[in-house]
Amino acid sequence: MDPNILFYNPQKTILPKLEFFRSIGLSSTDIPRVICASYCQALLSRSLENQLIPSYNFLKSVLFLDQNVTKMLKRSPRVLLFNVEKILAPNISTLREAGVPQSVTSFMMYRSPGTLLQESCKFKEGVNNAIEMGFNPQRSNFAHAVQVLCFMRESTFDRKKEVYGRWGLSNDEILLAFRSHPMCMNLSEEKIMETMDFLVNKMGWQAAIVARCPVVLFFILERRIIPRCTVVKILLTKELVKKGLCLSTFLIPREEVFLDKFVNKYQDWSEEYLFRDNGFCGTKIRI
């Protein structure tokens, strides 16, 4: 916390701002968190009339509802430190010119306000690159693509492509994965390699199949991927499920759905048990 806050007039400087935060829907628990967030103690030094209120009003013009603005502020309170109208307006115009609907603009503002706070030239470059890569401006994953392209250096992006390429994926297959789930480029090299190694080398799925469902790369190996794949591999071995099972069929569903479809369904098939601390259904599975 900035020690200069001790010199502020509590009644004239601090209290009006606390009352403002309360008036827009931040709770008594939220307010300290917002103010104490990194660098955001500076909020108390900003002018209420010239900075905080105008910034809030502009954000509301994008997000429409008080509750949407407060949710965003709890995620990224430092946005109030900027002249948001001056910085955001050109970038929002860029989105409109690219055919991005208001719903996707609001989604981007809520999920990643830092993306829209980029310099206008850099932001426009990110938008144009996303369009050139085949992203549909009408869909929310366009916002994720722009986020990745604005924050990631070109050299880093190329290095991540090289990591995926080690598994024999072509440039088109890598871009297909990126278009399907843009945040897959944010995964660490270690995470990509470990997960691909298990799915390709240990489980026998082709790298191209994994690339068509990149969301599975985000799951934790020990807690989800390994135990579920182990169960499915046994079912495949015993020919209880069809070959060519899509990864999304058993890795994406909620725990209870997976149990219902791949475990409980086969409880009475055999007296054989699989003893395994699998992290999703206890230590004993009947298959």
Describe this structure in words.
This protein is elongated. The chain is 60% helix and 2% strand. Among the domains are: 160-218, no CATH class; 219-287, no CATH class. Helix 5 runs parallel beside helix 8 (120-132), helix 6 (102-111) packs across helix 9 (141-151) and helix 8 (120-132) crosses helix 9 (141-151). By secondary structure, the chain is mainly alpha-helical. It has a two-stranded antiparallel ribbon. The longest helix has 17 residues, at 221-237. The protein has helices at 10-23, 30-36, 48-63, 66-75, 84-97, 102-111, 113-116, 120-132, 141-151, 154-165, 171-180, 189-202, 207-211, 221-237, 247-251, 255-263; strands at 273-275, 284-286. The chain is built from 16 helices and two strands.
- The number of helical runs is 16
- Backbone shape: elongated
How many β strands by DSSP? 2
**SS-derived structural category:** mainly alpha
The biggest sheet, with number of strands, parallel, antiparallel or mixed sense and barrel status, is:
2 strands, antiparallel
Strand content: under 5%
Average pLDDT, all residues? 86
Helix content bin: 55-70%
How are strands sequenced across the largest beta sheet? 1-2
H/E element order: HHHHHHHHHHHHHHHHEE
Contiguous low-pLDDT stretches (5 residues minimum) are 270-287
| Beginning-to-end CA distance, first to last residue | 57 Å
**What Rg is obtained from the alpha carbons, in whole angstroms?**
24 Å
List the helices and strands and how they pair.
Layout: H1 10-23, H2 30-36, H3 48-63, H4 66-75, H5 84-97, H6 102-111, H7 113-116, H8 120-132, H9 141-151, H10 154-165, H11 171-180, H12 189-202, H13 207-211, H14 221-237, H15 247-251, H16 255-263, E1 273-275, E2 284-286
Antiparallel strand pairs: 1-2
